Task: inverse folding
């Protein structure tokens, strides 16, 4: 349907700078922040502007006779893929910003994945885009950075990160 060519997606996020609160008294902690976000993003890549209509291609001539071929089958039920992402993290900076890092949990679920489904050659087009499948990516990411050498003219930092990933289709 032509109505599926456009869609609205939203997001919201926020953070709390805990280290600025009156009750927080740890002098060795330069900054401590809790942040979170949730949002959606859409994807309709690869299906063009008119997936709800049958499309035809020119240039399939037979000697001097002009020819056309159906290049896309109509699908009036196709919609956007929708990825919903959730993120929760604790960011920190210690010892006058000599050590900093974050611990983050993420969870992203994508619904209505768009795939080209093979069709019989007798239909004239090779594939039909359909919304089939879902995917989930979730895990934990840890980042840690430290200034090994820090003076007026030179800073040498060392960073390390680790991530876990669970992916299901």
Result:
């Amino acid at each position: 349907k032509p109505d599926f060519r456009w869609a609205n997606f939203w997001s919201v996020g926020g953070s709390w700078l805990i280290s600025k609160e009156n009750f927080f008294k740890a002098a060795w902690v330069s900054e401590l922040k809790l942040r979170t976000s949730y949002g959606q993003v859409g994807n309709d890549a690869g299906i063009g502007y008119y997936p709800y209509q049958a499309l035809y291609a020119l240039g399939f001539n037979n000697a001097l006779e002009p020819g056309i071929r159906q290049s896309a089958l109509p699908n009036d039920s196709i919609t956007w893929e929708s990825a919903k992402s959730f993120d929760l993290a604790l960011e920190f900076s210690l010892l006058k910003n000599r050590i900093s890092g974050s611990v983050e949990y993420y969870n992203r679920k994508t619904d209505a994945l768009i795939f080209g489904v093979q069709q019989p050659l007798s239909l004239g087009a090779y594939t039909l885009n359909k919304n089939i499948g879902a995917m989930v990516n979730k895990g934990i990411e840890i980042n840690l950075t430290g200034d090994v050498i820090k003076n007026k003219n030179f800073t040498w930092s060392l960073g390390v990160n680790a991530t876990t990933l669970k992916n299901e289709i």
